[in-house]
Amino acid sequence: MDQETAKLFYVISCIALGVIIFSPTLVSVIGLPKGESYSALWLLDADHQIENGTLVISPTKLYKVYLGVENHMRNLEYYRIYVKLRQNNEALPDKATESPSPLEPIFEYRVFLNDNETWERESRFSIEEISFSGDFAQISGLSIDGNYLSVNEFVVREEQSNDFYCQFIYELWLLNSTTSRFQYHNRFVSLWLRLTDT
Amino acid sequence: MISRTISSVSNFSDFDVSASNELGESQMKSCQVLILFLCALTLTTALVSLCFAADAVEATGKIDDAESNLNSAFEAVYQAQNAGADIRDLVVRLGTAGDLLSKAYAEFRVGDYESAATLATDCSHTVEGIASEAIELRAKTEIEKSDRMLLTFAGSGIGLAFLLVSGITGWRFLKKRYWKRVYEMRPEA
Asked: Cβ of B149 and A14 within 8 Å?
């Protein structure tokens, strides 16, 4: 190895060592890219499995589901999960236009999550007041997590199945820290309920 | 006889007038009672509805206050988190306050304004102090952060300076050693 090559090798080694020594300062000064940010929302059945269909609901009987949110937004976030009750002919949230369902929420959860944190809650619900009349069923009261909720939902009997169906929608909303307003986060999960009078 | 008849007629008419007067008075009294009853009923209805309206207004006000307090507390905690503070305890308290506010809304929707107001007040009490604690935590973390930054800069500076000095010294040493070897390898005349 001649002297020039050795000099070059020595200088490069010194520079590399210099970068290593200076790297803590560089990391604190230069902001590294944070990667993709997203939130996850899920609904699991009573056995903590993925809910695969429809719950058959009897009046006043208590049912259990698990509702969960995971924050990967790289920040502390303030979520709201709106619970809505709909029947088949009412609008669902629109993923394409990122708009929520126009239905009024009947209940809400408020969740505060740090980055990479998970929130999961056992949600218990029951249909407290329901009346069946011919091809109609009217839900007047239900209970979610021990909170009695007064509703007025008419459910029409489905012609094909001859059953009464309605659906719980859980919409995820997020507080926009710039505008200080909640915005629909374009995520929802749902649970079909088949209502029986027994 | 005629005069007697007339007098009896006149007596009769007197009786008729007095009877009709009595009847009018009793009707008037009934009317007065009825009007008073209607007024009382209207007043009661108005007062009751006013009381309930006041309850609803009060509950709405308390819920709005709680909502605003919760948002302010969240903003403060958010800023503290951005500064790098450990906000886990504060987030747990925010969650508790959020649950109370959700319940307040649920009670409000079923018309239990008293419970709604109580829950909203509890929510406000729960978030009380969170904002100031977050601000304090943020300030403390920022001082710690700037101290740490200063230490890092100083460490890096000293490290670089040491590297520079030792690099030059090392190079000189190696160069000297190299030439020494070269001179040693030189064939003797």
From this structure: no
Report the domain count for chain A: 2
CB-based contact (8 Å) between B101 and chain A? yes
Would you call A21 and B163 a contact, using CB atoms and an 8 Å cutoff? yes
- Cβ atoms of A71 and A77 closer than 8 Å: yes
Residues A52 and A90 in one domain: yes
- Chain A interface, best mutation among B87, B96, B102, B144, by max A CB count within 10 A: B102
Q: Does B82 sit within 8 Å of A14, measured CB to CB?
A: no
Residue A2 burial class via C-beta count within 10 angstroms: exposed 0-12, middle 13-18, buried 19 and up = exposed
Q: Are the beta carbons of B163 and A14 separated by less than 8 Å?
A: yes
Residue pLDDT, tens place only, A10-58? 899 989 999 998 888 888 788 777 788 999 999 998 888 876 678 888 8
Q: CA torsion A86→A87→A88→A92, rounded to 10°?
A: -10
Report the predicted TM-score, pTM, of the whole model to 2 decimal places. Answer: 0.75
Residue where the block lists tokens 């629109």: A94
| Any B CB within 8 A of A7 CB | yes
Q: What confidence tens digit (pLDDT) does each residue in B31-56 have?
A: 788 788 777 777 666 555 555 555 88
Domains of chain B and any CATH numbers: 13-185 (1.20.140)
Please report, for the domain that includes residue A176, its CATH number.
2.60.40.10
Q: Tell me, yes or no, if B94 comes closer than 8 A to chain A by beta carbon.
A: yes
